[in-house]
Every structure is written in structure tokens, then in C-alpha cells.
Amino acid sequence: MEDTGYTVRPANYEDCEAIMSLVMELAAHVKCEHEVKIKVDTLQRDGFGKNSLFHCLVAEVNRDMVGYLLYYYTYSPWVGKTVYMEDFYVKPEHRKKGIGTEVLKSAVKVFLETQCSCMEWAVPCWNKVAVDYYKQKGAINLTETEQLHIYRLTEEAMENLLTK
């Protein structure tokens, strides 16, 4: 989709290096760069093969990638097909120009066309700008409404679980 100098399109195999660069920018933004363990070849393998594990939309300005939204489908026995938005990032110098909203709208269009009943994602509590942005778009904070907490078992924790 083209509008006012930017393009939103599905990512392809050749985009992985630029996507990885944006992943690192986002990780730095949320102060978690040390947690990124994958490399470009992992993105290529996991996202662009016969059994891809994720999908991605990218935003470009003059063929320069300035943002991305990475997602994957999940399933709920309560509501059916759902989607999880793992990452959504636009470079700071390209924010407040409608690019992020257009990426989000493009993704939501895909989600509705593929019959997803809802989309979910996580936002750091301290990221008030993101929290306000999502609330303005109609998002519901499940921590407040459903009293849900998100948990994670790391690879090490999974291995430890098997030995006990």
C-alpha cells in the first residue's frame, strides 16, 4: 500500500538483514538487547520456508526499511483462531507520520481476512507512549480486565523442569 511516500508490504527472505537491524533497535529501545539470541539466518529459516513460524509486514520510505510488524497465528479453544503480534516497531524519526498506524491497519486487515477472532500482544508497563497509542486504537489491557499475568519458561527452565 502506497501513501505519502511510504510503502507497507509483506516481508520477504531478502528483508531479513534489515528486519534484524530493526529488531536490535527495538531491543535497545526496551533495554533488552542482551536478550536477542537469534541472527539473520534464523529469521530466514523460521519465517520464509515451507512451514514458516511467523509472518511480517515492513514499512519502507524510499526503499529504506523504517518499521516492521511481526506476528504469528495461535489458537484458543474459547474463541478460535487468534494472532499474536510479537513485535511492532517504527524508527523514532519516522513516528507521528501515520506510518505505524498504516502498518497496524494493514496487519489488522490481514487478520480479519484470515478470520482471526482477536489479536494480542505484550507492552512493557513503563512504555506509556505505546500503552496510550494502543488504548487510543481500542486495545484492552488484559492485566486490568482479566487479571491475567504472562509467564515464560526459558530454555534453561524447561531443561531444569525435565530433570526434576
TrEMBL record:
Pfam families: Acetyltransf_1 (PF00583). PROSITE patterns: GNAT. Gene3D superfamilies: 3.40.630.30. Residues 6-163 form the N-acetyltransferase domain. Keywords: Acyltransferase, Transferase. The keyword Endoplasmic reticulum does not apply. GO terms for molecular function: diamine N-acetyltransferase activity. Its EC number is 2.3.1.57. InterPro entries: Acyl_CoA_acyltransferase, Diverse_Substrate_AcTransf, GNAT_dom. It comes from the Eukaryota. It is an enzyme of class 2 (transferase). Belongs to the acetyltransferase family. This is SpeG.
